[in-house]
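Lab notebook, bench 4. Continuing the backlog of folding jobs that were queued last week. Each job is logged with the same field layout so the records can be merged later without manual cleanup. Today's entry covers Sporulation protein YlmC with PRC-barrel domain, a 113-residue chain. Filled in by technician R.K.

JOB TYPE: sequence-to-structure
TARGET: Sporulation protein YlmC with PRC-barrel domain
LENGTH: 113
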Amino acid sequence: MRLNELLGHRVVDASGAEVGGVADVRLVQDGPLLAASHRALRVDGLIIVEHRHTRLFGYERHVGPDLLRRLVHSWLGAVWYLPWDHVTAIADGTVTTHRSRADLRPLEDLARY
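JOB STATUS: finished
OUTPUT FIELD FOLLOWS
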């Protein structure tokens, strides 16, 4: 599966309730060394938006004017981070997690860097 195929997949929690949709994939460059002395990328987690038919604008985290961030958040609904190790299955346009919606961390809680 290609990463862009995950975008738009609906996300279902442990109880079968829909959480939202996959809006982005978070990658970390800490894999094995490649020939160009760079490390390989690995999937660290998924960014989930409550209103699954929307796109991210870059103002979901700690950037931009506060008013603009509030407008984007009101349009997107909640934005969560789902660690990759919490994903239990990906099939038929659905990502299933063994966590409940209440266990997901808001994207804004991730460390800034």
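OBSERVATION: The domain at 3-108 is CATH 2.30.30.240 (SH3 type barrels.).
SIGNED: R.K.
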